[in-house]
Amino acid sequence: MGHIVLVTGGARSGKSTRAEARVSALPGERVYIATARPDDAEMRERIARHAARRGAGWVTVEEPLDLVGALARSDGRGPRLVDCLTLWLANLMFAGRDWEPEAAALVAALARQQGPVVLVSNEVGMGIVPENALARAFRDAQGWLNQRVAEAADEVEFVVSGLPLKVK
Amino acid sequence: MGHIVLVTGGARSGKSTRAEARVSALPGERVYIATARPDDAEMRERIARHAARRGAGWVTVEEPLDLVGALARSDGRGPRLVDCLTLWLANLMFAGRDWEPEAAALVAALARQQGPVVLVSNEVGMGIVPENALARAFRDAQGWLNQRVAEAADEVEFVVSGLPLKVK
Amino acid sequence: MGHIVLVTGGARSGKSTRAEARVSALPGERVYIATARPDDAEMRERIARHAARRGAGWVTVEEPLDLVGALARSDGRGPRLVDCLTLWLANLMFAGRDWEPEAAALVAALARQQGPVVLVSNEVGMGIVPENALARAFRDAQGWLNQRVAEAADEVEFVVSGLPLKVK
């Protein structure tokens, strides 16, 4: 059974760097499963910066929606990094897909992995209640998803100022 | 003296579930002190979902404002769950009440409890400074209340992705 | 080499009080380096409240921009409290200064200190993504700064409801 790690934290908390370090410590070809859509300039710049930091020794797979499929296709190649669940969830909601069965399918898929997976997610519920109903719905969905993935994970780390706090 | 536990965390972090588990582990009739006002559809749906999750073996008391009274009246019946301080504080402010003496009275009341109490609260100060002055005032009040209740508590847990981190 | 401590947390989490306690436990004249600009009523009131809490035995230095200089000038006098990096960063950005070299210079300066320094900063990235591009840029800069200062620090504490969680 593949070892599953969830790395969560705020925006720019250093969670991707931490997750990369976890994956880099494992043997085998590393697979980076990017859920970002390179739609806008901000996101393109961020993707390029992350790729430069990872360097060689990584294969990149872009998969904004079919994360379960990307995990199935990459299993056995080497350790996988999913960066990140927050963009995946936003992509599902933006595409008008029902996120709940998709999230349940992801959790079920994690239990089937033979190789290790490190998943990055965001903490988005520690600010003031958003005035916008869509933002509240997203915040609720993200919190639910993090709980379910954390339950399925063997390890959970909460990153603060670049430093991991072990929560599981 | 009643054992006091504060369970804090972000929105949808699993803090209510965690607090319920803490109360369920204690002997006696469980009292759920709900501070929510079932005013709108979102809130009604959430209250119904929480009630279904708790199941039988719980008595529900609805008290949006007089939390000190609700604690006094329920003391000795069994372990109490206060869910949550954030809605209570919002209700006080919305009712135009001066929250500071009420918060001080709550902290004083906690020291008088004979039976155990588990209180749920939210972390709301880890986002960008709100543009809205009322939201800033609420954020300040919530932070102050959490500090005072944490000081009065025997245990404090910070819930991240459904998992408790012991902070006291 | 001066011992460097970063105390981070949300708004009104009790991080300043915690940082003051850390500095107060050290021998020597305490220097409070305030980065706040007493421009508006809210901020003036907060500064006065913090000063009253600290009491005697503190020298206050107001330095909204030249934090590196303030640290150099105060080194050797006694333990220093920098409150806080978030206002300093906001001041730099508001003044149209390029924050990245200034942040790098601060990190380099921390390595040169002979006496101890406790720095307060905020976690601002655990809410919903701000709609405002400037707020997003600030959030990113703050996250980056916290990571770099945490890397340079000997100790890092994350304060939740007034209680410190040791992260380094």
From TrEMBL, chains A, B, C:
Catalyzed reaction equations: adenosylcob(III)inamide phosphate + GTP + H(+) = adenosylcob(III)inamide-GDP + diphosphate; adenosylcob(III)inamide + ATP = adenosylcob(III)inamide phosphate + ADP + H(+); adenosylcob(III)inamide + GTP = adenosylcob(III)inamide phosphate + GDP + H(+)
One record GO biological process: cobalamin biosynthetic process
Residues the record lists as binding GTP: 9-16, 34-36, 62, 83
The keyword Transferase appears for this protein: yes
Gene Ontology terms for molecular function: adenosylcobinamide kinase activity; ATP binding; cobinamide phosphate guanylyltransferase activity; GTP binding
Pathway(s) per entry: Cofactor biosynthesis; adenosylcobalamin biosynthesis; adenosylcobalamin from cob(II)yrinate a,c-diamide: step 5/7; Cofactor biosynthesis; adenosylcobalamin biosynthesis; adenosylcobalamin from cob(II)yrinate a,c-diamide: step 6/7
Active site: 50
Enzyme nomenclature, EC number: 2.7.1.156, 2.7.7.62
Keyword list, A-Z: ATP-binding, Cobalamin biosynthesis, GTP-binding, Kinase, Nucleotide-binding, Nucleotidyltransferase, Transferase
Enzyme class, spelled out: transferase
Described purpose of this protein according to its UniProt entry: Catalyzes ATP-dependent phosphorylation of adenosylcobinamide and addition of GMP to adenosylcobinamide phosphate.
Family statement drawn from the similarity comment of this UniProt entry: Belongs to the CobU/CobP family.
Protein name per its UniProtKB record: Bifunctional adenosylcobalamin biosynthesis protein
Organism (species): Rhodovulum steppense
Taxonomic lineage of the native organism: Bacteria, Pseudomonadati, Pseudomonadota, Alphaproteobacteria, Rhodobacterales
